[in-house]
Amino acid sequence: MDPRGFPTTLPEFQRVFPDDAACARYLEHLRWPNGFTCPKCVKLGEPYRFAKRSSVVLRCRACHANVSLTATTVMKSSRTPLSVWFWGAYLVTTQTPGQSALQFQRQLGLSRYETAFQLLHKLRAGLVRPERDAIGDQHPVEVDEALVGGRTRGEGRGNHHKTTVVGAIEVRTRRPAAEGKKQKRIIYAGRLRLRLVQDRGAKELTKFVQENVANGALCVPTAGKPMMICRCWATRTNHWCLMETPKEPRLIFQ
């Protein structure tokens, strides 16, 4: 168990959260560590509990307002049992390589693929910190955009019905290996930021960079490509431009 009392191993998780009731008690303790407080009348006291209801709802004895334990969480308005949500959260946060929705469905024993996909999508979205830091304060950043979508036939040349995705990723460098040990790949990927954009124009791309990349970040053109799209303050218009010579880093964010 970690200092917060959360299980860190599989046997501990099974012991702490054996059923839906244990999961509900954990949620209630997180939300009201000093006891139930009605969000409507702000009165402290033991709530009324619905023993025969499948949903986790508490009722204030003073104002009779109903309060859901899953409100304001990714589990809001979900009919999936709490134990499935907790198991899903444990799998998502402990498996480093990640997993597909199909694997998620098999591990949780879900009958429908759509349910597994929705749970996985909500859990991943819940892992994103709204106040997360901008990247590039300590490492160079690669910025590039791509078109995502399949082939289209019978619509002429060019790109049709594809989505533009812009990304920025930190380029980190490993320390030299100790004597006698094999050196791993020196360059590896750090923190990543992705966003769907309406187009590849300067306005959309510049907004993405300003919101996700730290001021003064050093940009390295994408490896293996002769040029990349980046913001260059040295240009007369201060718009996005094509930068060549991918082997040399350029200072682009001020």
Structure notes:
The chain has helices at residues 10-16, 20-31, 82-94, 101-108, 113-126, 202-212; strands spanning 48-49, 57-59, 66-68, 141-148, 163-173, 187-197, 218-219, 228-231, 240-243, 250-251. The strands form four sheets. It has a three-stranded antiparallel β-sheet with strand order 1-2-3, with no helix packed on it. The protein is an alpha+beta fold. 26% of the residues lie in helices and 20% in strands. A hairpin with a 7-residue loop joins β1 (48-49) and β2.
Topology:
Blueprint: H1 10-16, H2 20-31, E1 48-49, E2 57-59, E3 66-68, H3 82-94, H4 101-108, H5 113-126, E4 141-148, E5 163-173, E6 187-197, H6 202-212, E7 218-219, E8 228-231, E9 240-243, E10 250-251
Helix pairs in contact: 3-5, 4-5
